[in-house]
Amino acid sequence: MQRPSARLTAHDRPVIWLGANYWSRTGGPLMWRSYDGEVVDAELRVLRDHGMTMTRSFFYWPDFMPAPDRLDEEMCARFADFLDRHHTLGMTTVPTFLVGHMSGENWDPAWRGDRDLYGDVWLVARQAWFIRETVRRFAAHPAVAAWLVSNEMPIYGRPPGEPPAAREAVAAWAQLVVDAVRAGGGTQPVSLGDGAWGLENSGQDNGFRLRDTAELCDFLGPHVYRMEDDPVRQHYAAAWVCELTGTYRRPVVLEEFGVSSDFASDRGAARYYRQTLHNSLLAGATGWIAWNNTDYDQLREQDPYRHHAFELHFGLTTAEGEPKPQLEEVRAFAGTLRAVDYERCTRAGTDTALLVSSYLDTVYPFTRAEDRTHVQRTCRQAWVAARLADAPAAVVRESDGTLDSEEASGVRLWLVPSTKQLLSPTWYALDRLAHEGATVYVSYSPGAHDEQRGPWYAHLGALFGVRHQLDYGLVNPIEDDEVTFTLTRAFGTLAEGARLTFRTADTGNGRVFLPVEPDGAEILAVDGRGRPALLLRRTGAGSVVFCTYPVEHMAAVTPRVNPEATSALYDALAAHAVVRRPVTVADPRVAVDRLVHEDGRVFVWLVSQARAELKVKPAVADGTRLLSLEGASADTVVLPPYGVRVLRLATATRHEVPGGS
Asked: Same structural domain for residues 504 and 540?
């Protein structure tokens, strides 16, 4: 299965954005009042000299539109100078119109009053007028790379604590403001700047839908600032959102990410940048715009920095313009992009697919919000585990209806982790895919709450070859703080007698197992009390593997757990399914993935999640070998703590082609 890696283009060539969200240190959001072109020039030069080619810039709405029918000419002149300075330095920018929300505060034009930003016809018309007129002034400037309608409109249009806007109102607003860009003569790509926080990615309804946005916009732009309890999940947080977003087949630009130096040491901030940049690249991102260019210590008396002190220090440079370690990581990443000629690379195909239940992104009658967040959390953990097993998974949304496609029929391993709910036809489709030759893996879950608690499986017994032993209204609690599976026969990479141990830190509905008796299935592993834990049902040319424990969910709610035993289980599943993995590393702290250049070269990423230096010897397919980008042999690879190495896979027979596995 080919994983999405859609690209923005300009003049029929792919475009890769690497830059920063930009406010000058002279004023932050109020920079246009105290605009200093020389300071702007110096700030841009530092970014450019560290490999950045663009910025995201902002029209501070109260200043640029002081009245409902007037633009401020002085502000526009300063923005024109700002564009000129970008062009002189060989840089571009993406202007953002409705700002609006910024750094912990909402900033209204004085004339807005209490009018609704989405539903008030007059106010929507004023927004469209502002967008159309600013585009008309600047669309022809060569420094304008694209347009963004807003900055995080969901929390401007509906501040936290208020009910979400109606989807229909948001979709209508989005149509009108995007049309305004085109009416003003803007031919560049356009997107909403909403952060991609909607139902499809988060399980939380804010009125925005990625389905709607993808129909209107040329790219999708996640904003990711996760607070996590596991370092590995933190390092993959932005990548997971990019992967989910990419299912809508639009270019994905990581439009905002970053760290405040108040929340991370220099070493921690650099590590976060390194991991986020490389992991999101491997998850399909084709652009990166860090938050943000500089610190603002001299603005400590000015809102929003006065009341959100940590916002002072998100910069890639200090308030004096000195590069911080995270900017050095950006420079190194830019060098990697050049070295592999990233504009002409695509993601390698994969034989593994992760099925995301439609209960994440669809509100079915008489279901609860906890159902959606349960899917999001467990699928994220499974996706991480698959990466650590060197079997990176394509993400397939059940709601896309793709299980009947030719592409789906080519998947060798389907992962359906800790799942309570799929649509009835989907269960039968999975059974069919197994019969046709795939390995379908499902792990049990009764859900995240006690309303209709239990597995919503259309034909549980026939699908898994078991008879369940449930009592109505009750779950079977896991008695121990750790569960150990012991293999009763060899399976994939696991020998008979091998053990997999899982932590069971969760309580309530997540700390349960499904008691079963085999009825046509073989027992692969038992738990510490001798009960079936893994079962294999052979069907046609393939098989179904059932886990009676919600191992992904247990890991998803356990702090500092990764890497954990699910990655070893997935490694065994991949071997059983004969998933093609040209390069693997036995250490689960190292994830392997590949990009394929249009000329046939294959580039291999090794990403370490280890605190200490590692020396690893990757296993490669017969007839191939690993080389450094300079051409030296790379049979053994040294990875610094949380380090990344990029190598080339050479073969004496043929090159891998995009879409292959």
From this structure: yes
Total count of domains within the chain: 3
Q: What's phi and psi for 47, nearest 5 deg?
A: -65, -50
Specify the DSSP class assigned to residue 142: T
The torsion angles phi and psi of 338, rounded to 5 degrees, stand at -70, -40
Burial of 606 (0-12, 13-18, 19+ CB in 10 A): buried
- Of 530, 553, 576, which marks where a domain is finished? 576
Cα torsion angle, 312, 314, 319, 324, sign: positive
159 in Cβ contact with 106 (< 8 Å): yes
Q: Residue 320: CB partners within 8 Å, gap ≥ 6?
A: none
Query: Does residue 587 sit in the same domain as residue 538?
Result: no
Burial class of residue 634 (count of CB atoms within 10 Å of its CB; 0-12, 13-18, 19+): buried
In a domain, residue 658? The reply is no
Cβ neighbour number for residue 508 with a 10 Å cutoff: 11
Q: Do 562 and 231 meet the contact criterion of CB atoms below 8 Å apart?
A: yes
Q: Name the residue range of residue 609's domain.
A: 583-651
Contacts of 287 (CB under 8 A, 6+ apart): 8, 15, 16, 17, 18, 219, 251, 252, 253, 254, 255
CA distances from 332 to 50, 51, 267, 326, 482 (A): 8, 8, 15, 10, 42
Longest CA pairwise span in the chain (Å): 78
DSSP character for 234? H
Tens-place pLDDT, residues 568-582: 999 999 999 999 999
Res. 12 pLDDT band, cuts 50 70 90: confident
In this structure, are residues 75 and 67 in contact, taking their beta carbons and an 8 Å threshold?
Answer: no
Query: pTM of the full predicted structure?
Result: 0.96
**What pLDDT score was predicted for residue 180?**
98
Let me know if residue 556 belongs to a domain. Answer: yes
HSE, side-chain direction, 13 A CA sphere, residue 282: 29
> Are 400 and 483 in the same domain?
yes
Single out the residue of 154, 41, 148 nearest to residue 98, CA to CA. Answer: 148
**Per-residue pLDDT tens digits for 75-124:** 999 999 999 999 999 999 999 999 999 999 999 999 999 999 999 999 99
Instruction: Return all residues near 217 (Cβ < 8 A) that are at least 6 apart.
Output: 178, 189, 190, 191, 192, 250
Q: Are residues 629 and 556 in the same domain?
A: no
What pLDDT, on the 0 to 100 scale, is given for residue 623?
93
Last residue of a domain, one of 576, 604, 620: 576
**Closest C-alpha to 606, from 576, 556, 565, 642:** 642
> Average pLDDT for residues 305-327, to the nearest whole number?
96
655 pLDDT band (50/70/90 cuts)?
very low
